[in-house]
Structures
1.
Amino acid sequence: MTAAPGAGSLVVANIGELVTNDPQLGVLHDAALCVVDGRVAWVGPRAAAPAADAALDAAGAAVLPGFVDSHAHLVFAGDRAAEFAARMAGEPYTGGGIRTTVAATRAAGDGELRATVGRLRREALRQGTTTVETKSGYGLTPADEARSLRLAGEVTAETTFLGAHVVPAEYAGRADDYVRLVCGEMLDAAAPYARWVDVFCERGAFDAEQSRAVLLAGKAHGLVPRVHANQLTAGPGVALAVELGAASADHCTHLSDSDVDALAGSATVATLLPGAEFSTRSPYPDARRLLAAGATVALATDCNPGSSYTSSMPFCVALAVREMRLTPAEAVWAATAGGAAALRRTDIGHLGIGARADLVVLDAPSHVYLAYRPGVPLIRTVLHNGVLVA
Ligand SMILES: [Zn+2]
């Protein structure tokens, strides 16, 4: 029972609850959805479903758009389980462990990195993630950054140059020299493989002027900015993201009132990464404050071997509901349509007519179960471009 794009039509029948994220369609009950050529072609009452070449019986379960994970770091080698254990025993998180992963990544062959990226991409897909962004940032030389993005590009079109992740050990004390390398030779090597440019704007990483230089250099190469902003301190990252028209400001854990106002008055999405707070035992972002101000909020995993080694969007939805007081409906929206907004995509994150047929069938009657039954594998079926993939 599959329908390849261009190879016919598929009806998803007997849907108990259909979350479309489409303002006109809303949430439908006792519904059906028809896919033609990998796109949503029809949505309506179960009894009115048109005939199709193939059928998928949802058996009364909930159907949601596939998750859009707009922030992940999948290209790396090694792990940092010992660092995690030490942190859980009371050591603070500083971000300095990134250099451990840089050393392991530089030493790894293409085959090892490709295997890790592929494994994590499949792991995410099984958990309902139909679109994933992924960043470089563990190479930190022109050749290693270009390699990371080339390998990332084998699993996603949403690739982000993060040469300004941390100042590598060989540039210790010479951050401005490193920023010149990032803006020059490294960007020249990386830009052909990237859609986005990102920077870790944080005390101990890159300050406002260094971050601005990197983002402007990326823009000059045709890349669109996104920023690791305000994770550990209420720094300048969010203001800079809004100033430069970034698609997203990510983390947003420590925000001033003017940061919140700036996000609410801009097209820059506030992407919250509760897996990072969970894994570093840190206070969660104030999602309700952002929503009350009118900001667009996305949820993503921040999947990386140091501060958030989860690829699970359902886990992030559960955290957002339990720890950040989003309603289940708000959390599902943020994990789907919010992520699409953070990637400036209109073809994904919803199931309106014409959307890419990326959807999940839950092993549950309602989207609420994603938070109500945390840690339980509730993703029964995944369609990507209308094709059954998990
Ligand atoms: Zn990150």
2.
Amino acid sequence: MTCRMCLKEKTLCKSHIYPEYMYAHCYDENHSYVAFDAVEGSYNKRRRKGLYEKLFCRICEDVLKKYEDYGKSVLYDNLKPKVRKLKSGVTIDDYDYKLFKLFVLSLLWRSSVSTLSMFSSIRLGKYEEYLRRVLLDEIEIPVNDFPCVLYQVHIKDRLSDGVFMEGFPRKAIVDGRTIYQFIVDGLYMFIGVGTCSIKSFKQGASVSPENLRVGYDELHKIEEFSGLVSRLKQQNKFSCYEKS
Ligand SMILES: [Zn+2]
């Protein structure tokens, strides 16, 4: 079978779309968790393992594991404990922009490559091949290439760990740009597709070479994406997506 990353004929692994460690919060005493499904007419499901399918060879799994391990150290060893303590957004100055951004983009790219139905709304088209090369060759891409904005969501004072929404029914178009959004383990991510000209970048993407800024917002406020973007715009925090 063909590995979706190196495109060579190889034995494929059972590859996770999102790393298994992101599901650790979800499991109850029966080692299962509830996956929320926002699509009308479908139901939440109880699952025993994170989502996976045969996609990548062992070598490419190791490439992705490097990004996953780095993402874990930033999000789980550093960011989440700080957010939990401060109950506010957090800025991390000392981090590896390239590796962290590749980690975030690997989640989006794997969702696009996946044939599982819950990811069917995420299709990158010509950008899928672009990101494949970026991830395979560990390329650092500019901040306005696939800009990423991250939020930790919460319900009252509790972080919404364990909340997953794999893909909203449709992608959002904001200022003429396609933006994908998903929630993984209480982390809300929205990622612009392709190169987005960024006017006031300092308040735009939160994954930047200078620092990593992760916001903090109530889960129920984030359910309506366009509402979130307009609130951010009103607060002058999200003014980056414009046609060049
Ligand atoms: Zn491979």
